[in-house]
Amino acid sequence: MRYTEFAPVRPTQPMPKPYVVEPDQVKRANLIKRMATAIAVRRSIRKPTPDDKAMAFAVYSQAQRQANRNFQQAHQARRPNVQEQCERDSQLFEVADQMQTFIAAVRLQMGNNTPIVRTQLRAPNFAQAFRLLEYVFGKGNVMQMFPVRYRHHQ
Prior knowledge:
The structure is a single chain. Helices cover 50% and strands 14% of the residues. The chain is of the alpha+beta class. Among the domains are: 51-80; 90-147, Roll (Ubiquitin-like (UB roll)), CATH 3.10.20.10. Strands 2-1-3 form a three-stranded antiparallel sheet, covered by helices on one side. A hairpin with an 8-residue loop joins strand 1 (100-107) and strand 2 (116-123). The protein is elongated and about 105 Å long.
């Protein structure tokens, strides 16, 4: 014979607890107990005196001062000499020192007049200098451009 379960043995939802009405006197007694316990706990915690506060501030100040010193030392250790950093980082060295100077003849559009003027600019390479001039003076208005080579006296 097979066992067939028609209703679950365990309820799927918790059984509702019966609502018990507490008398007002019991409610007041419980409230008074909780309040008395809270007051006792508060009284058992010792309040810090001004001397305790002063000592805590002194300890905090020492810890903060040491943290500031450590931060300053770490910051100074991370700050390398600029020349050393330029030698290590070739891109930065290129940007800082290897800008080329170019002279260009450009045409200005001023109504009926189109004077040609010479200008000088610094850029990393020829293509960027040419693009910059085209952007500033307009496409087709850069007539001539050449790099300036300076002699280095040694």
